[in-house]
Amino acid sequence: MSLFSFVKEAGEKLIDLLTPGNANAEEQLKKHVESVGLGNPNITATVEGDDKVILRGEVASQEEKEKIILATGNIDGVASVEDQITVTGPAAQAARFVTVEKGDTLSAISKKVYGDPNKYQKIFEANKPMLSHPDKIYPGQVLRIPD
User: Fold this and answer.
1) Which of 8, 81, 106, 114 could form a disulfide with 119 if both were Cys (CB 3.0 to 4.6 A apart)?
2) The CATH number of the domain where 124 resides is what?
3) Do 20 and 46 reside in the same domain of the chain?
4) Model confidence, pTM
5) What digits encode the pLDDT tens for the residues 60-107?
6) Do residues 100 and 140 touch, judged by C-beta distance below 8 A?
7) What distances in angstroms separate CA 34 from CA 46, 110, 130, 132, one per listed residue?
8) How many domains does the chain have?
């Protein structure tokens, strides 16, 4: 079990997702994960308090798990995601996560983490399908940084 922190005021707005007593929160989260291109994974999502989401279930890879965590955490109003997802496939090293700051570009992030701004495509590919274009990132968004 891991707890990941996110910028609560950043991300896509999902109407009523974090409203206390929302019986449709799990369904809304699953639809969101599907809408960003991650399919229909075997997970459940519950909202605890007014800003924490708990994810449970099984996925095939570490990459899929990380993308689901990021798709959930990069929702406006979500401050933390508790990961209780099991990976059924081969073990893999977890990627690092980086929070986008004002003025950042994928090239600038690439230069910070890899020492080479031209490796931005590696970060872009690691965050597909959630990113549709390398220039469409925003402050507060959390991105996967593969080794």
Assistant:
1) 114
2) 3.10.350.10
3) yes
4) 0.89
5) 999 999 999 999 999 998 999 999 999 999 988 899 999 999 999 999
6) yes
7) 16, 28, 10, 15
8) 2
- Provide the residue range defining the domain that includes 127: 96-145
**Dihedral angle sign, alpha carbons of residues 3, 85, 44, 60:** positive
Q: Furthest-apart CA pair in the chain: how many Å?
A: 47
Backbone angles phi, psi at 79, to 5 degrees: -100, -25
The single residue listed with the structure tokens 């229909």 is 40
- Same domain, residue pair 32 and 9: yes
Compute the distance between CA of residue 72 and CA of residue 109 in angstroms, rounded to an integer: 22
For 100-128, the DSSP string reads --TT--HHHHHHHHHS-GGGHHHHHHHTT
Helical packing angle, 62-73 and 25-33, nearest 10°: 120
For 48, phi and psi rounded to 5 degrees? -120, 130
Of 43, 61, 87, the domain-final residue = 87
- With tokens 């495509």, the residue in question is 121
Cα 61 to Cα 86: distance, rounded to the nearest angstrom: 9
